[in-house]
From TrEMBL:
It is a multi-pass membrane protein. This is ABC transporter permease. InterPro entries: MetI-like, MetI-like_sf. It comes from the Bacteria.
Amino acid sequence: MTRRRPPLALLLPALLTVAGVLLPLVYLLIRALGAEGTELREIVFRSRNLELLANTLLLTVGTLVTTTLVALPLAYLAARTDLRPRRALMLAGVLPLAIPGYVGAYAMIAASGPGGTIEALTGLNWPGPNGFTGALGILTLFTFPYLFLNLHAALRAQDPALEDAARLLGRTPAQTFREVTLPYLRPAWLSGALLIALHVLGDFSVVSLMRYPTFSAAIYQQYTAAYDRVYSAWLALGLLLVTGAALVLEARLMRGLHLARVSPGGAREVRTTRLGRARPLAWAFVAALVGAALIVPLGTIAYWLRLETNPFAWTSLWDALKSALGAAAIAAVTTTALAFPLAYIGSRAQGRLARFTERAAYLGYATPPLAFALALVFFSLKVAPPLYQTFPLLILAYTLHFVAEAVGPIRTSLNTATPRLEEAARLLGQTSRGALARVTLPLIRPGLLVSAAFVFLSVLKELPLTLLLAPIGFETLARNVWAYTEEAQYAAAAPYALALALSGAVLTLLILRRERRPAPRPPRPPKEQA
């Protein structure tokens, strides 16, 4: 059932969501252009801007290269080889996603240098991560799962007949991989690479701890330390331009890709590659990755945790955990509720309005969180000052920023749910709202739960929005990890870091388990009303 026009009851909340995303960004532009001519020229043509741009682009491109070098071999080992157990390989590729980058940075800093965990346990003074290489290494370890998941799914789905045809034409295994497999992985790589690029462009915590200046780090410093709101607004606009360029580049690279099978026959099962003598090398690679991304961070947190002797630490931890879980739960509900109209319009309606509504909502997620938070700060101070630094504004920021993240699983569920069931319900006397409530919503319940879980996990780890928008006295796990790490109080930060890592791991495992379940059977059409 495809509609030309979206239903009004769903179109109104969708348009309000789009307005909520666009209005703060429009005000950010107005704020940036509010400077006088002399000041404006001095801000725009600062040499510092070119340095920040170069650093930001270098880190983004470098992270894409290194995450590919990590994710592609691991995805191939898990999807195409006889290396077992496969579940352990999947966990190695997914669990680092549960550890926020700033927690990983805290753990690496606390493990190295004089008095660090490595020196305390082994006597070796391991050099601490710093600068470009430090930021590159940490971002690689904790963002490569975005690429791993996409590449693994693509490798499992590829029809082996394509590779067999290349081998019959005389291609070597290496040539077949380069000329057949890699081009097939291009869409999966582009999707994962876009997520990683957006994450790196928006990150300020890792680069700040590593003392590597980028746009995001400069925005935070200008707003919180220098109180230069005009320059910080211009930096935010510069970061938005870079993000927009990344989105346009990804769209152009995806244009014209047609990798669907032409033959109507069913695809065969993917052939398993026997590693043979390369098995020890493969296990060494997996062990090194697990050690760097999981064992070292968690071990460091455990080491510093036993040094925490403050009797009030656990009470403070419980308060921060309750605040973080409460905010994440509320944001998960509100975000999922707003994502449903967007997903329904995108899957059931046609026309320019439907396309604009769905795509405009993604702008909130594509906008780096620090720039988005700054836009909301300026907007609230000008339009609704009592809203500034309140809990509702924080929830609003979470909702608008992560609503696009929640749209995907819901739209996937809607695409697999046949609209004919809604038509049958209408023929049996149900209204549009009744068919939606009694047929569609029960059918897409798994998608709603996955969307809520995604948002819950993202809000739990979110730092920039919380730092700039949270009410005074509102403490969360992420905020306390950041505050104590900045002051080099590693023992004090350990309880909050451990709670974040464990909470993220539990949610990640639940999401994976939910997504592996088979799709539910469609509900029976409602009986005809008397």
